[in-house]
Amino acid sequence: MDWGLANRMHRMLLPASGNTVMLAVDHGYFMGPTHRLEDARATITPLLPHADALALTRGILRHSVDPTTSTPIVLRVSGGATVLQDDLSHEALTTSMRDAVRLNVSAVAMSVFVGSPHEHDSLVHLADLVDQGEEHSIPVMAITAVGKELEKRDARYLALACRVSAELGAHLVKTYYCDGFSKVVEGCPVPLVVAGGPKLDSARAAIELARHAIDEGAHGIDMGRNIWQSDHPVAMLKALRSIVHEKATVREALDVLETERAHPTARPPVATA
Ligand code: 5RP
């Protein structure tokens, strides 16, 4: 791996744990002003110092994130469909590598829609993006989209989507936790991070999801709604950090959540690189 590409990977995956706590705030690109992300700047600003990377689109980056930030940026560069369409898989590359370079990003990200009507296009777009990423030493994260067909969130489907993404050259893959997740990890030669999906019934459920994913081999989380739709988003993010970086148990992470709710500390417990 080229030095520049490796350096960008290690900005996101902290050397001490090899893992990352990525904050996902890209939902508006197809969902519009998502609940509690309507004012993106207000949502992002208090969370940013506690995230190892921030995943978003160029519009929200330019309008809602202060350029003094040192948090690595994972730029979503695919889009083209909204929740108004039945078929969300009709995406293309919507941001050039040239603009990604201009924005000084640490990685670019796009959705791949294995098993969907536009499977072929999304896979060819991924391969094209990897070629461009290699040229500029910018890692590519493939996002294994499950769209509206949540029943596809099973190990066989996700293992296929993750492996195909890695075979086409993705340097990092975002997927979903599922029963049999270790099989998804085993079949994927590049680091996997897990999304949270729609807000779960409790903070405990989201923390358990992260604990199970890390135990079964994930290199971190790329989580959104279970953090910023929480009534205590910074405390939730810190609790998740303890899972991802400090091997905390679910009970210990819930203690972090309670303590941070009562007495917030200024910085995350794990120093950033
Ligand atoms: C939207 C995405 C999200 O970034 C991803 O789903 C993570 O966010 P959440 O934890 O809310 O699911 O890719 O397309």
Summarize the structure.
By secondary structure, the protein is an alpha/beta fold. It has twelve helices and ten strands. Helix 4 links the parallel strand 2 and strand 3 (73-76).
Fold blueprint:
Layout: H1 3-12, E1 20-24, H2 28-31, H3 40-47, E2 53-56, H4 58-64, E3 73-76, E4 78-79, E5 92-93, H5 97-102, E6 107-112, H6 119-136, E7 140-144, H7 155-167, E8 172-176, H8 181-186, E9 192-195, H9 203-215, E10 220-223, H10 225-228, H11 233-246, H12 250-262
The structure holds ribulose-5-phosphate.
Which features characterize this protein?
alpha/beta, 10 strands, 273 residues, globular, binds ribulose-5-phosphate, two-stranded antiparallel ribbon, 12 helices, eight-stranded parallel β-sheet, TIM Barrel
Describe this entry's structure for a reader.
This protein is of the alpha/beta class and 273 residues long. The chain has one domain: TIM Barrel (Alpha-Beta Barrel), CATH 3.20.20.70. 42% of the residues lie in helices and 15% in strands. The protein contains 12 helices and 10 strands. The strands form 2 sheets. The protein has an 8-stranded parallel β-sheet with strand order 9-8-7-6-3-2-1-10. Strand 6, helix 6 and strand 7 form a beta-alpha-beta unit. Helix 11 runs antiparallel to helix 12. The longest helix has 18 residues. The chain is globular, with a radius of gyration of 17 Å. The site of ribulose-5-phosphate has 13 residues, from strand 10 and helix 10.
